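Attaching the record inline, Q. Sequence:
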Amino acid sequence: MNFVGFVVLFGIMAVLAAVPSTSVAIVVSRSITCGFSSGVAAALGIVTGDLLFVVLAIAGLTTVATALGEYFIIAKYLGGLYLIWFGISLLRRKTEIQQTESTGASLLRSYLAGLMFTLGDLKAVFFYASLFPVLVEVEQLTFSGITAIALATVVTVGAVKLGYAYAAHKMGVLARKRRHGGVAMKIAGSVSIGAGMLVLARA
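Structure, as predicted:
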């Protein structure tokens, strides 16, 4: 894998990671309602899912992904319903957001939420499968090349999602200081419901 190809791949992945999506919605909502650490956990789940897709693309296993098409549809429906349920639960809260230190269980839920939404996106498999042959000579990839691609995935996807998590956390902190925590919670709930409905509409 040459340097130019790596830079182009890095740039494309960074731009796509920054585009508002359901994965961004889950990071933002978890960070506002459960704290920055939960947003980080959700971001780690998303990165894990992307890394799995990278492995599938490098191994040329898009046929396996196609065979698992029903799984992706089920995962999409479950993910969409979860986002809607989570958003409704936020809108129905009568108290303002009170962020407490995240427990192991809440961090695990956030991680699994990020992973589930990523694994429910079949388009990501074919994105990597179509992009890699153009920028990377997959047949000639060495261990160092695979490592470089994995690092690019972690840095681009991880850094962008962490940026969203940090910004959402700061927004929640500022809202609570100004006694607008309920407004921030309603925003998070609305974003979550909207993202869930979008997932179901595209399933």
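Residues 96-101 have pLDDT under 50 and may be disordered. The two ends are 35 Å apart (CA to CA).

More tomorrow.
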